[in-house]
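Apologies for my clumsy wording, but are you able to produce some protein sequence, whichever is easiest, and the tokens describing how it folds?
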Amino acid sequence: MKFKRRMLWKILLDALIIIIAVTIILGYRAISPPRMPVLITPTDLGLPYEKVNFITEDEKNLSGWFIQSKEAKGVIICLHGYPANKSDILPFVEFLYPCFSLFLFDFRAHGESSGKITHFGLKEHLDVYAAIKWLRMNKKTKNANIGIWGYSLGGAVGIIAADGNNEIKALVTDSAFANFPEMVTNYYKNFGPLKYVFSGTSRILGRWVLRSDFSLNSPETRISGIKCPILIIHSEDDEFVPFQHAKRLFEKAPEPKELFITHGSHTAMAGTTEYQKKVLNFFKKYIDGRKK
């Protein structure tokens, strides 16, 4: 009996060690994404631009592009997804030019920006604040109204950054998640029922590594505090972030709000004329080019 009991405890201990080891390995890969190369620049699309660098309040050096339009009705900060960089979203947001100037940058630990780990929104909202500060200090944009277009992680960060922020006059999110712990569970979906064990372990380790609770960067807990109109875009066919996330965000968002339903995979953003018209008209409606 004692032998069987010892064997059982040994099996449980070995299983625990394996779970923790696998979680650490996969978790490290998640918070330290590979640096995707910057494949195109605005010049490749015939757009004039200025390379900019700016510092966050926690001293991360971020790399960005300012694409100025002389006929702009404001400036749109464009936020990329994970793991990606500013060049990945450039072809999908160029339709906003020349009605609006564009400001694209790499989140910390992405592209050409500094930083070793991503925080999935826990600190990336500081990157957005730093971008807004740069725009306010620039004589070309110091009085311009500011809008945000964000894709996936960028959309989630946009919501968090807009919580209680009067500087942001309009917000468009595309394929944003509502609840980050659910996305962590989804990250381990190939492990079947064990995904809950791995995701639970990740949350415990995340509190230690990131020194915060994953639930704090869940947009559905922050969206009620946004101070601007919001357009939520999501595909009913999204295989990565279920459409249910968009429905929950829309239900909790304050007025004025709009929900635009699309079709296609998670990466099929800004692909139709209808999409571009919807987003452009939304920004035109709420951004007139002068700070009020």
